[in-house]
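[Meeting: bench + compute handoff]

Bench side (C.D.) handed over the final construct sequence. Compute side (W.E.) agreed to return the predicted structure before the next meeting so the bench team could plan truncations. Sequence as handed over:
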Amino acid sequence: MQQFQRYYKSGTCTIQNSFARGLTSTNTINHKFSFSKPKSKVEAKQLAAKKHSEAERRRRMRINGQYATLRDVLPNLVKMDKATVLAETVRQVRELRKTVSDLEAVCRGSSSTKDCVFPGEANRLSLENCDNHQGLVKVTFSCEDRPGLISAVARTLRSMKGRVVKFEMVTLGGRTKNVLWVRGLSGGNEGIVMLRRALKVVIDRPILPGFSKKSYLT
């Protein structure tokens, strides 16, 4: 016959087994008891109000940070209050939109896309021999502006033994148009074809993750 005695003290349960043959076995099992008192309605409201206050504080910090950025980038800003900053921002955006519309009208009015001095929305690449200058090739391309673009173009030209004698560049709205006059290309017409293929790879290269138009402009 077995007798079991249980003792509970401070979360500890002790089970003592006594056997008829005089052997005693004691097993001790630790139990952690957690007694949580339910929060009252007042406490729940106070906790919710605290969370809301913290969220509102973080929101105000973000807004103030954006206002500080606008104060830094807006030109000729006299007053620093928020109403003035917003009004000047709206004026600048409207002025920029008008400028873009005027530039697009100029490009549409050009006799050809090549005559437009501003970069277009689509990537373009053209290579042509200059009739009046033997061995001179005019390279024109438009694409997304990005770090390392000109360096990549220069490496491509060097690999073809080309030497830039004149260079023009216009950048607008995160896009760029470049015109290069190149001498010394090896391979004649075949060299021009090879250069076209190599440059097309450069200008059509996608923007790497983590980079954006905005990061190029700031």
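W.E. noted at the follow-up: Residues 6 and 144 are 79 Å apart (CA to CA). C.D. will use this when planning the next construct.
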